[in-house]
Amino acid sequence: MGAGNAEVDTSSFREDSAPSTHLPPIPPPRPLLPPITSNYASISTPFGPSPTSSNNMSSTPEAGGGNGDTHLNLQLVDLELLHHFSTVTYLSLGRSDEGRHIWQTYAVKVALSHLFLLRGLLSLSALHLSSLKPEQERMYLDRASEHHDKALEEFHAILDNVNDSNVEAAFLFSSLLVPNALVLSRIDGLGSGNTVSSSSIFDWLFLVRGVKVVLEPFRESIWNGILGNLVQVKGIEQVSTGAIPQLQRLREDFSQVTERRTKEAALAYTEAICELEAVMLHLRSSPAGKDLPDVGIIMGWIVKVSQGFSECLRERTPEALIILAHYATTLRYRNGELPSIKRLEIIRHYLWWLHGRDVQLVSAIEEQLPVEWRGWLDWPKSCAM
Question: Which long-range contacts (CB under 8 A, 24 or more apart) does 99-108 make?
Fold first, then answer.
């Protein structure tokens, strides 16, 4: 899922090509902890070398991201967050038994040496708990935002020095960027309901693509290491045949060079539409009633599109925004085919971070589009209803 001018196969950021066909058993409900107010109690726990005197959990300089912040202010709620991640939330991140096990155990182990990754795990866990415990939603959301913001600062600090000692942590953290940012974009957005901040949407899109460039030199070592089970090797081009009528219409119109649309932009739009069509066809080729969608394939489109298309998105061109709105329809693909009870169970435990994001993304894009272009959103809006 991680985010060159040279085309790079998104397979390096996709999940296992042969995921298990059945959902793992959902852990039995665990007793809820007593309500924890915002006045958390700090506890002293060593993180790396033991501090001589501190009420914070300390880390090694590398774990702190090399930015001088070598302490994690560990609160009582963070122990709950880490426990929840390793017992429940990890299920949201893997579609194969091997992938889920990596998130449950190995990712946590790596996080104990890399503070930005630990913060990323805690943030996602807090977001998950906010959806499960509405009576404590605000507290969990505040903690999630705090961990996520600090994690990004620490992650940015190591991006200029990714090496063999931290590449696994960087790859794992990059896999958390989309679920964390998708949920937080709604929280940080303007207005209410399904409205999200359009700037926050583009921020995480560009961040994911930037991470792809940084991690690309380490693709082979990731494939051949323990994290290889999180990588999908089979490309979607090998299984995609047919056409999507709505995308054909886009391609026929947006591929034309006009007074305001350069040849380079038209090519970027055409390539992005072709990549999106491959994603949609792959999803349609999946067995009917399959429990989990190919989230890795869906997110792979973000890093597969060309630099030219990314620049068009950065400039908020109407064509790029419309293509992105069509992409948003993949975020809810196939949910409606599952029995209602099973669908709610899957959303609650596995796809909670995707639920409703298609509506939010299309709504944010509509706000950005000039009125005369909004007719192109009829199909994405009908899919998101």
Answer: 99/15, 99/16, 99/19, 99/229, 99/230, 100/24, 102/226, 102/227, 102/229, 102/230, 106/226, 106/227, 107/172, 108/82
Segments making up each domain of the chain, as ranges: 10-230, 236-384
Partnered with residue 72 across adjacent β-strands are: 57
pLDDT digits (tens, 9 = 90+) for 259-299: 889 999 999 999 999 999 998 888 777 654 455 556 777 87
75 phi and psi angles, rounded to 5 deg: -110, 165
Is-contact 173 117, C-beta < 8 A?
A: yes
* DSSP secondary structure of 163-228: -TTTHHHHHHHHHHHHHHHHHHHHHHSSSSTT---HHHHHHHHHHHHHHHHHHGGGHHHHHHSGGG
Predicted structure pTM score:
0.73
pLDDT of 3 over the 80 cut:
no
Give the Cα separation of 302 and 116 in Å (integer): 23
> Which is it for the CA torsion 321, 17, 127, 178, positive or negative?
negative
Confidence of residue 43 (pLDDT cuts 50, 70, 90): very low
Please state, in angstroms and as integers, the Cα–Cα distance from residue 234 to each residue in 18, 19, 97, 341, following that order. Answer: 9, 12, 18, 32
Phi, psi of 71 (to 5 degrees): -130, 140
What is the rounded CA–CA span in Å between residue 26 and residue 350? 10
Beta-ladder partners of 42: 75
